[in-house]
Write a structure and sequence with these properties.
Layout (H helix, E strand, L loop, with lengths): L1 H16 L3 E5 L3 H13 L3 E5 L2 H10 L4 E5 L7 H10 L8 E5 L4 H9 L4 E4 L4 H35 L1 E7 L5 E3 L1 H7 L6 H10 L6 H14 L3 E8 L5 E12 L5 E10 L1 H15 L9 H18 L2 E9 L2 H8 L1 H20 L18 E5 L2 E9 L3 H15 L2 E3 L2 E3 L3 E8 L6 H17 L5 E3 L3 H19 L5 E10 L5 E12 L3 E3 L1 H11 L2 H22 L6 E4 L10 H12 L6 E5 L8 H13 L3 E7 L6 H6 L4 E4 L1 H4 L6 H16 L3 E4 L5 H9 L4 E2 L10 H18 L4
Parallel strand pairs: 1-2, 1-3, 3-4, 4-5, 16-17, 19-21, 21-22, 22-23, 23-24, 24-25, 25-26
Antiparallel strand pairs: 6-7, 6-10, 8-9, 9-10, 11-13, 11-16, 12-13, 14-15, 18-19, 18-26, 19-20
Helix pairs in contact: 1-6, 3-4, 12-13, 13-14, 16-17, 18-19, 19-20
The structure holds ligand C2E and magnesium ion (2 copies).
Length: 728
């Protein structure tokens, strides 16, 4: 199309600037000669040929601006030449003036029928012909200009995907541009049926709107703009933007409706895409923080008006950092994407919290990834706050089965914090912040759990911040101390070991318990140096006791799972033991099931190395974790410590009793010793003794004690024992 316009343009320039070229076709040489001279004289450029065939050839080589064509020639007649010319592409544009010898009406009619523009009779009167030629050439230039500007308009319409139309109010004639037909996916058709065909492509639901817009333009003579959808014959859907206005006759009476229609489909699609990208997370395709806040804002507005509640669930994966570090970031990324999938699946059925007839209210767009391993779920309409707990549980359950990612089986759990509008906040910020706080509380509760927000939590998180701040200086300022708690043989009552338990004397807070600061130290990455300090303190204490000949039983130290993450733990412990100058058998180590949650193989290797050095390993808090029995078989440990939660109620709860007894039996079957933690009553002790539990630890015998008190206890026990020994 562009070529054609260029061609037209050139032609107009030729006509305006250069001498117009005139092709003279006549078998009579004298006519050719006369015309050639006359044309030249008039400033035109003549080209002469003597036959119809030569004329066609000359035209094909370089089309002239005008042709003077003799009717009667040997071979092709002028009529035939004219017909053939008109059949050529571009052949209908050049003016052809027929030269006839006779002035009969049949010849003139035939001339026009074959496509001639005008005719002159021979003998030619040059003056008249000269004026006619000038007139024809000028008309031709204007025609070309008009064509050129039409082409340009069509081209501009094509580039901007704009079609135009007009409807004549007086004649009822409708005319539309090529582009308009193209946009509508229709072939150009005649006026009446064409308009109907165009109207039929309008989406049925938008027809009323379109009709009203046109009416308003008509009745109020004011321009209108509107968008509507369109279904094309090929089934594709498009979006059109239309503008319509009225145009008037010079006397002010309405003449036409004129309109343009622009195809906005692509632009809308791009806008949609940009909007999607700016509001969604590329990794999981879930919404991002921005979208979530918008959705939450909307839900708050609706809940406020409707007088109902809305819920926010804030999920954070437990120990996600470790997964990234152990398996690499690409596995971490796949895990996040998989978690997103499971979230969508598990929340999709959450109609129980919304009105069941509008289950779509919890659609996947209500789930967002806020960043990292944090996800948020919006439940816009909550009937019963407790049902939020059900959704939280379902989410946690959905994470339960292992993820298999790039050949790895990855186990992950999450912690969920829950806030409810309006109880826990009236704006998105507060609801999100408090849900985050509740999520942290869930983590502190032992992870893989959910927590509703409570105002108290903010005090707790403030305390947590304070502890964080103080913890950094505590080691340097020697604020830690180890207390020791005896482990006693259940049958004989003899002290067989001590467990070192960390205490923190903080000048302002007083004594802070390990449950309050060890998880924080773990998260802050302080636990490795703190753990080393505990190992050194315990080993030096054991060395001191050995030198002084008191408390000559092994000392146990608790190891945090975090301490296994830095490679070479066994070597580090061995070095500490060596420096203290005690035999390795004097040190016991206690681990929890948490150590095997990630990269069990590495942990098992490290534990085997520790045992090979001669130290014994106990599995602490047994029964509270979630490792399977098959892990227990693989774990190289010597002792099971039954968590005090099972011991507490063995007198009253038959199930707890059965469990404790079962654990002892299981340990025995696997060749492990058993230690009961938290024994507080004589009745508990008696039962455990009856079940053949090996050792106990608990307030019944002694609380954890600072060193001087412990030495006193030891000496007291031993002098008693000695006094009980038969003399002689
Ligand atoms: P754990 O290793 O299971 O330690 C036993 C906990 O039970 C101690 O709490 C002890 O004071 C408590 N306990 C002992 N007998 C009784 C009883 O008869 N009744 C009751 N109700 N409780 C009893 P503690 O000292 O607060 O330590 C809590 C946890 O902190 C320990 O649990 C251990 O997991 C951790 N922890 C303590 N010291 C260290 C340490 O040096 N390093 C590491 N990584 N963790 C430590
Ligand atoms: Mg312990
Ligand atoms: Mg324990």
């Amino acid at each position: 199309m562009g070529d054609r316009v260029d061609g037209e343009h050139r032609k107009v320039e030729d006509l305006a600037k250069k001498r117009p070229r005139v092709l003279v076709v006549d078998d009579d040489q004298s006519v050719r000669h006369t015309l050639e001279r006359a044309l030249e004289h008039d400033g035109l450029e003549p080209q002469t040929v003597s036959s119809g065939e030569a004329a066609l050839q000359a035209f094909d080589e370089c089309p002239p601006h005008l042709i003077l064509l003799d009717v009667q020639m040997p071979g092709m007649s002028g009529f035939q030449v004219c017909e053939e010319l008109r059949a050529r592409p571009n052949g209908d544009e050049v003016p052809v003036v027929m030269m006839t010898g006779m002035e009969d009406s049949l010849a003139i009619q035939t001339a026009y029928d074959s496509g001639a523009t005008d005719f002159v009779t021979k003998p030619i009167q040059w003056l008249i012909l000269s004026h006619r030629l000038r007139y024809l050439l000028r008309a031709d230039t204007n025609l070309h200009r008009l064509r050129e500007s039409q082409e340009r308009i069509a081209n501009a319409q094509r580039l901007s995907q704009v079609g135009s139309w007009e409807f004549d109010l007086e004649t009822g004639l409708f005319n539309a541009s090529d582009m308009l037909w193209e946009i509508h996916g229709l072939e150009r058709t005649d006026a009446a049926s064409g308009m109907k065909a165009l109207a039929e492509t309008v989406h049925p639901s938008d027809r009323d709107h379109l009709r009203r817009s046109l009416q308003s333009c008509w009745q109020q003579s004011s321009p209108v703009r509107f968008d509507h959808r369109m279904c094309r014959a090929d089934g594709s859907k498009r979006i059109l933007h239309c503008q319509v206005q009225m145009s008037f006759d010079p006397d002010g009476s309405p003449a036409r409706l004129e309109g343009i229609a622009q195809d906005l489909t692509e632009r809308k699609r791009t806008e949609e895409q940009v909007r999607f990208l700016s509001s969604h997370d590329a990794l999981t395709s879930l919404g991002n923080r921005r979208l979530f806040r918008e959705r939450l804002d909307l839900a708050i507005g609706q809940a406020h008006q409707g007088g109902w509640k809305a819920g926010v669930l804030y999920l954070d994966l437990d120990h996600f950092k470790r997964i990234n570090e152990t398996f690499g970031h690409s596995v971490g990324d796949s895990l996040l994407a998989e978690v997103a999938n499971r979230l969508v699946m598990s929340v999709r059925g959450a109609d129980l919290v919304t009105r069941s007839d509008r289950a779509e209210e919890v659609d996947s767009s209500a789930i967002s990834r806020l960043g990292g391993d944090e996800f948020c779920i919006l439940l816009p309409r909550v009937r019963d706050v407790q049902s939020l707990a059900a959704v939280a549980r379902r989410i946690l359950d959905a994470l339960e089965s292992p993820f298999s990612l790039a050949g790895h089986e990855v186990v992950v759990s999450g912690s969920v914090g829950i806030t409810v509008y309006p109880n826990d906040g009236e704006d998105p910020e507060t609801l999100l912040r408090n849900a985050d706080t509740a999520m942290y509380a869930a983590k502190e509760q032992g992870r893989n759990s959910y927590q509703f927000y409570a105002e108290r939590m903010n005090e707790l998180s403030l305390r947590r911040l304070i502890i964080e701040g103080k913890l950094r200086r505590a080691l340097d300022e020697s604020q830690f101390e180890l207390y020791y708690q005896p482990k006693v043989n259940l049958a004989s009552g003899a002290i067989e070991g001590f467990e070192g338990l960390l205490r923190w004397h903080e000048p302002e807070l007083g004594m802070v318990g390990p449950d309050d600061f060890i998880p924080i130290a773990e998260e802050m990455g302080l636990i490795t140096s703190l753990g080393d300090w505990v190992l050194q303190a315990a080993c030096h204490q054991a060395a001191d006791w050995a030198r002084r000949g008191i408390c000559t039983v092994p000392v146990a130290v608790n190891l945090s799972p975090e301490q296994f993450r830095k490679p070479g733990l066994a070597a580090r412990i061995s070095e500490i033991v060596r420096q203290a100058g005690i035999p390795p058998e004097s040190l016991d180590l206690e681990i929890t099931e948490g150590v095997v949650l990630h990269d069990a193989d590495k942990v098992i290797q490290e534990l085997e190395a520790i045992r090979a050095l001669g130290m014994r390993v106990a599995l602490d808090d047994f029964g509270t974790g979630y490792s399977s029995l098959s892990y227990l078989r693989r774990l190289p440990v010597d002792t099971l410590k039954i968590d005090r939660a099972f011991i507490k109620d063995i007198e009253n709860e038959p199930e707890d009793a059965a469990l404790a007894q079962g654990i002892i039996a299981l340990g025995r079957a696997l060749g492990l010793r058993s230690v009961a933690e938290g024994v507080e009553t004589e009745a508990q002790r008696a039962r455990l003794a009856a079940w053949n539990c090996d050792q106990m630890q608990g307030y019944l015998f002694s609380r954890p004690l600072p060193v001087p008190e412990l030495e006193e206890l030891w000496q007291h026990r031993h002098s008693n024992e000695r006094s009980r020994e038969p003399s002689g």
